[in-house]
UniProtKB/TrEMBL annotation:
UniProt domain Nucleotidyltransferase-like: residue ranges: 105-310
InterPro entries for the chain: DUF6788, NTP_transf_8, NTP_transf_8_dom
DUF6788 domain sequence ranges: 19-67
Name of this protein: Nucleotidyltransferase
């Protein structure tokens, strides 16, 4: 049974998200400059600091971004009113029983956003991303579906991190230190990809796709950290989307598309079904079942396209998807016909 938020709550969420995206243009200090790299178009904020010319990455080219940049002056003039309106929208969403995030997670995501993590390609993955589909899809989660985790997983493409030629405004090591995180030991000295909070069990992990064998730790220059390489992340991170975190007056982050998240969870549920991660495999399957139910009802074409993309990536991908479907009558009923 899918339980939905009210139309008012769904509209308020998208108003919050739109306002946060307006801030991207309002924060431009100088002249938007278009740069072509490897067949893709990126926009940078070009401005002077003394005799030096600085460039700060704004975002990848899109019609929506171009429209906002055409309204820079108006967006700058209205920043205070938008901030107050966002705070009102967050209060409304809390009154509508949005799950949101706890204060500790919200403040950490806010610090990451302020440093430029999501602007520079960082994407929230894992359970924190799953919880943020509440606003995008306009649905309520049950407690079982959203077993709370304070862990924060951030993933990004290594090549994108290199290509952007920009970096976070504050070293993430210092940002994490301010929240009482310490680097977790690794086999590669000086290459930290995981931090543990000293006052809790919370972990922050950085991940990146592996395109061959899982290649250990890889650098993410834009973020100034290393990341653990994992299979199938390239599929998950394709065409990420913005999301609003209901903390303070809202925080703009980036998450995978829900249909890709669902299919990715089906794949990793099979990868983790045996051994020490078997409990995570169950959670993976439950999250996939919930999202597939919603998407099959609301966005069947998106779901079909995401599944077809995964099935086209080879026999091992098809085998893992089929194995999870065999263990889930719900997924079999929703996706079985698409597998043929």
């Amino acid at each position: 049974m899918i339980t939905r938020h009210s139309p008012l709550a769904h509209s308020a969420y998208h108003d919050l998200l739109s306002s946060l995206r307006d801030e991207v243009a309002a924060e431009i200090r100088g002249t938007p400059t278009r740069i072509d790299r490897n067949g893709r178009v990126y926009w940078y904020d070009t401005y002077r600091v003394g005799s030096d010319v600085k460039k700060t990455y704004i975002g990848e080219d899109s019609e929506e971004l171009r429209r906002r940049m055409q309204r820079i002056e108006a967006l700058r003039d209205d920043r205070d009113n938008r901030r107050r309106n966002r705070a009102r929208l967050v209060r409304l969403l809390r009154a509508e029983r949005f799950l949101g995030v706890d204060a500790a997670t919200g403040s950490l995501l806010h610090a990451f956003a302020s440093a430029g993590v999501f602007r520079l390609g960082g994407t929230v993955v894992g359970t924190q991303a799953f919880r943020l589909y509440e606003g995008e899809l306009g649905v309520r989660f049950t407690l079982d579906q959203t077993a709370q985790t304070n862990d924060v997983d951030i993933a990004s493409f290594e090549q994108l991190s290199i290509a952007l030629d920009d970096s976070v405004s504050a070293p993430l090591e210092q940002v994490l230190k301010d929240f009482s995180f310490e680097p977790a030991p690794t086999l590669d000295p000086g290459k930290t990809w995981r931090w543990k909070q000293t006052r809790s069990e919370t972990l922050v992990e950085f991940l990146t796709p592996s395109f061959a064998e899982e290649e250990g730790l890889r650098p993410l220059p834009a973020l100034g950290v290393h990341a653990q390489s994992l299979h199938h992340l390239n599929y998950l991170l394709a065409e990420p989307m913005p999301a609003a975190v209901t903390y303070r007056d809202g925080v703009l982050v980036q998450i995978p598309r829900p249909e890709r998240f669902a299919i990715h969870k089906i794949i990793v549920a099979d990868r983790r079904r045996d051994g020490p991660d078997s409990l995570k495999s169950i959670k993976d399957r439950l999250q996939a079942e919930f999202l597939v139910d919603v998407l099959a009802a609301d966005r069947p074409d998106d779901l079909r396209e995401a599944l077809e993309d995964a099935l086209a990536r080879g026999k091992r991908w098809r085998d893992r998807i089929a194995a999870t479907l065999k263990r889930s009558p719900s997924l079999q009923a929703a996706l079985g016909d698409m597998m043929r």
